[in-house]
Design brief:
The protein is mainly beta. The protein has one helix at about 35-40, and strands at about 1-5, 10, 15-20, 50-55, 60-70, 75-80. A hairpin with a 3-residue loop joins β1 (about 1-5) and β2 (about 10). The protein binds zinc ion. The site of zinc ion has 7 residues, from loops.
């Protein structure tokens, strides 16, 4: 699999580190079922998934990657700065 970093260009997947599913953070600071699910429960989708990746062996940018987990076809890569990644 290859990912296209917006700053460095297309690179091998080994330059990147997986940062988890791109989930929406719950509102509020109080602990509840929504925070428990956000922190501990994960889907394991067979198909399109939106994930965070960091270009660890490159520029260090956090990216939001949309890809198919079955075919590894990458559909979209955008900078994730300001999204509260990882
Ligand atoms: Zn990069």
């Amino acid at each position: 699999m290859r990912l296209s970093c917006p700053f460095c260009g297309t690179r091998d997947r080994r330059e990147f580190t997986y940062g988890g599913a791109a989930l929406a953070r719950p509102d509020g600071a109080e602990w509840g079922a929504d925070w428990d699910a956000y922190l501990h429960l994960r889907d394991n989708p067979a198909g399109v998934s939106v994930e965070y990746w960091v270009h660890a062996m490159g520029c260090g940018a956090w990216l939001r990657v949309t890809r198919d987990t079955v075919t590894h076809a990458v559909q979209n890569v955008v900078v994730a700065s300001g999204e509260g990644a990882a």
